[in-house]
């Protein structure tokens, strides 16, 4: 247990940052103050601070101390391929999925382009509003090629489609190409989301491939401007 004390201190410090006890750009207490506060060694405190730095919670400035970075928005990973359910569980906030549209459609010209389909192909269309802490702030528009997803239901769409695809259908989802842009709101956005006075929305377009490089899904994930930051945290090693 003693060896893991720095993990416990790290988690306590993260809680303070997330609660807003220390605002962005606030200087953390000094190492000496933290040693006194947590009744531990300087080495343990340094390990906890290094972990905070590695995970993007603080910036350590030589000769000045450690300063809190802005973590007030929901972190949505740019790299990596995760479902909304996985992100919501990591955030630890109350979330709900509302299925707005669910149907099997023939591929139109746009879907033929996005999914490499033909006009004879059938495509599952799923439109879902994502509610976090009582506000609908994401609109996910998913299109799945029926060739790869032969069966889908509205109940499945209320939960995690990826969980169903991987565990029940045995699909090996491998990688995605992502495009991010800021677009003007559509009537659909205004109808399905709680947008306040915003006139634009952040759109993440995903082209998702299976292990054999087959393109089986195209997604437009539309996010309210003020609620998310898209994170691919990196540090340059010297």
Automatic annotation (TrEMBL):
Domain of life, per lineage: Bacteria
GO molecular function: DNA binding; DNA-binding transcription factor activity
Gene Ontology terms describing biological process: negative regulation of DNA-templated transcription
Domain HTH gntR-type: 3-71
Entry annotated with the keyword Repressor: yes
Keyword terms: DNA-binding, Repressor, Transcription, Transcription regulation
Presence of keyword Ribosomal protein: no
InterPro entries referenced in this protein's UniProt entry, alphabetically: Bact_HTH_transcr_reg, Chorismate_lyase_/UTRA_dom_sf, TreR, Tscrpt_reg_HTH_GntR, UTRA, WH-like_DNA-bd_sf, WH_DNA-bd_sf
Protein name listed in UniProt: Trehalose operon repressor
Organism listed in the record: Priestia megaterium (strain ATCC 12872 / QMB1551)
């Amino acid at each position: 247990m003693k060896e893991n004390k720095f993990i416990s201190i790290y988690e306590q410090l993260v809680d303070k940052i997330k609660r807003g006890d220390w605002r962005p750009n606030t200087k953390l207490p000094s190492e000496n103050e933290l040693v006194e506060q947590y009744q531990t060694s300087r080495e343990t405190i340094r390990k906890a601070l290094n972990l905070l730095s590695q995970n993007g919670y603080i910036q350590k400035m030589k000769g000045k101390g450690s300063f809190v970075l802005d973590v007030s928005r929901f972190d949505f990973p740019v790299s990596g391929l995760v479902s909304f359910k996985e992100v919501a569980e990591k955030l630890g906030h109350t979330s709900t999925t509302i299925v707005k549209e669910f149907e099997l459609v023939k591929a139109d010209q746009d879907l033929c382009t996005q999914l490499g389909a033909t006009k004879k192909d059938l495509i599952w269309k799923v439109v879902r509003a994502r509610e976090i802490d009582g506000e609908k702030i994401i609109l996910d528009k998913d299109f799945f090629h029926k060739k790869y997803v032969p069966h889908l239901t509205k109940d499945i769409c209320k939960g995690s489609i990826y969980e169903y695809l991987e565990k029940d259908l045995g699909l090996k989802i491998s990688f995605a190409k992502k495009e991010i842009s800021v677009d003007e709101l559509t009537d659909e956005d205004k109808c399905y989301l709680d947008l306040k006075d915003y006139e634009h929305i952040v759109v993440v377009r995903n082209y998702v491939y299976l292990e054999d490089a087959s393109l089986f899904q195209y997604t437009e994930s539309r996010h309210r401007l003020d609620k998310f930051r898209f994170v691919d945290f990196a540090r340059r090693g010297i």
